[in-house]
Amino acid sequence: MNRETFIKLRAKLGKTQKHLAELLGVSLKAIQSYEQGWRTIPLHVERQLYFLAVNQRLDTQARRSKDCWIVKKCAHKKECPAWEFQAGQLCWFLSGTHCEGTADTSWKEKIAICRNCDILTSLL
């Protein structure tokens, strides 16, 4: 995640730097450093920030209509944790999903795919 996306998501959440630091379990100085571009945003912070942003605005019915296996016409859905836990809007949050036909090997590889995926980007 780059600093501009981080700033945009904090604004979307309507949180001060201090409040966001508390939500993410990091220091105020860390938030300031992320926004200034002095520090790289850790993957676990990125993951939590996306989770907060997505869950702030969607109601249950809207989530069901955009499940990843429907949007992507997935042939591997029954092997995927997103299907198993009925979390088609949270596929980007779950490790081991079968995006692009194979299970992800690491969170870093997974989030690189998800940052450009219609499922996540349509929620933000």
Automatic annotation (TrEMBL):
Annotated coiled-coil segments of the chain: none
Organism: Desulfobulbus oligotrophicus
Identification of the protein by name: Helix-turn-helix transcriptional regulator
Molecular function GO labels: DNA binding
CDD domains, per database record: HTH_XRE (cd00093)
Chain ranges of the HTH cro/C1-type domain: 6-37
UniProt xrefs under PROSITE patterns: HTH_CROC1 (PS50943)
InterPro entries referenced in this protein's UniProt entry, alphabetically: Cro/C1-type_HTH, Lambda_DNA-bd_dom_sf, Two-CW_dom
